[in-house]
Amino acid sequence: MTLDTAEIPRRRLPLPPMKLIRPVVSLGVLFGLWEIAARTGAISAFLFPPPSAIFAALWISAGPNGDPPYGILLDIALSLYRLLAGVGLALVLGTIIGLAIGLTGWGRAVFKPIISALMPIPTLAWTPVLLLVFGIDNRTTITVVFIAASFEIIYNVVTGIEMMTRKVYWVAASMGASRLQTLRYVVLPGILPYLITGLKLGVGYAWRALIAAEMLAASSHGLGFMIYDAQEYMDMKSIYGGILTISVMGLLIERGVIGALEKRTIEKWGVNVER
Amino acid sequence: MSNVEKILSDPVGETATLAPKPKITAEGAGIRFGSIVAVEDFTTVIREREFVSIIGPSGCGKSTLLYAIAGFLKTTSGVLKVDGKPIVKPGPDRGIVFQEFVLFPWRTVLRNITLGPEIAGLPRAEAEERARKWIRLTGLGGFENAYPATLSGGMKQRVAIARALTCEPDILLLDEPFGALDVQTKNYVMKDLQDLWIAASKTILMVTHSVQEATLMADRVLILGARPSRIVADVRIDLPHPRDPLDQRLGRYRQEVTEILSAEVDRAMKGERGQ
């Protein structure tokens, strides 16, 4: 009887949950096999240096003996700066454009066709244009991040507004709310779960676009630039170290930062975002 | 003599000195959506502190009528007046409670209830003090910091009622307030609402499709006909409050209303079949 078993209190073993064990085991096996294969010469240790050597190189690069000193930390810092600046810009402008499309007739008329026309263009296709406008400069990479993050934010803000029933507005109106008060007390908090979803997807796209853009348009530092630069010197360990860092940073941003944001809002409120 | 008794002792409302002032006046009010006539020639007077219930076959436009009195929809013919002034827009003098509660999931119970005073510009402390009274009277004590998603249907409806009453409206508009509740919960909330009405001394207009709800709670039951709806009967329930659902006299009123309503439903069904 399923009902009976459900009522037996489950005892938790004092072990880390399976959720944590499984990825560690799976990645550990992958790195272990790679290490053995590289060490025994089954694969080229030049093209695929053993993970232990990659970690060692990363470690040195994060310290004063790196070339340049603390190099990988500078790369991370600069990539994060570009990401943050671009995403911040996308969050502000994307929300405003999304609100204009969702709430006003003129906004829909003006922005919707433009957004629809721009959406299918891969973000990187803008780099040649941006390079000519801004040159090899932070502004180029920041603009790429901004473009990559904007569409999901705009789209989700519009969806959030469309999901609100007219009765929500009616309740506010029957409390005597002005247009501005309705925006502040009803629309903005109401779209927040959708905005976070848009941010999550947007940041994911933006992070990938940023790394690629840094390869084309960064003068110095940044994880993308670092990998590209290492290729010139055939420094395979740095390339893998960079790739690994990109993966870890991406995960931290998506799961850590956005996850924490979701816990404080959507999960606390018990709201589901339909997409 | 309480005002309730005054109304009851003056069934026709013709004794000008005793009868409370007209609160809501409808003079040939009609609402149409394009070619569809939802409400036609609705004429009645609802007096101060009267509890009036509107009942009718489903789709007869009774909620439409309520929304027009709330100011959410506009009449296309005739006039609806509150305190002798034509209704032009929603306002805090008319509180609304929907069948689907329409709470703000991002606000706690307390913050949902204080939103009205907050919008009116009251300081938080004062808004909370006002809310406390209705939290106590609706039995929500102890749930102030809960989010709506964690509440049962009955509790959500109490929050919606408390939220409407905290705006201190003269008129409380109830749109099938018990429709989404199970029978047990419904009986509790109904009993509480009767007590609240006596305590709050508001004019209440309740739309329902339940003869039992209408006859148990209201001073007058307006029966609307099948679309386009006009009043086919205005039944005064001449019994003191609070009422006992098992009262035989109440049973006779129930029968009377049911008979008129059944005839209307029959007519509506015949109309639909084109006979």
TrEMBL record, chain A:
Belongs to the binding-protein-dependent transport system permease family. It is found in: Cell membrane. Coiled coil: none annotated. Pfam families: BPD_transp_1. This is NitT/TauT family transport system permease protein. Residues 76-261 form the ABC transmembrane type-1 domain. GO terms for biological process: transmembrane transport. The chain crosses the membrane at residues 20-38, 45-63, 83-103, 115-136, 142-161, 182-199, 239-261. It is a multi-pass membrane protein. One of its GO terms (cellular component) is plasma membrane. Keywords: Cell membrane, Membrane, Transmembrane, Transmembrane helix, Transport. It comes from Paracoccus versutus.
TrEMBL record, chain B:
PANTHER family: ALIPHATIC SULFONATES IMPORT ATP-BINDING PROTEIN SSUB, TAURINE IMPORT ATP-BINDING PROTEIN-RELATED. It comes from Paracoccus versutus (Thiobacillus versutus). Residues 24-251 form the ABC transporter domain. Keywords: ATP-binding, Nucleotide-binding, Transport. One of its GO terms (molecular function) is ATP binding. SMART domains: AAA. It comes from the Bacteria. This is NitT/TauT family transport system ATP-binding protein. It holds the Pfam family ABC_tran. Belongs to the ABC transporter superfamily.
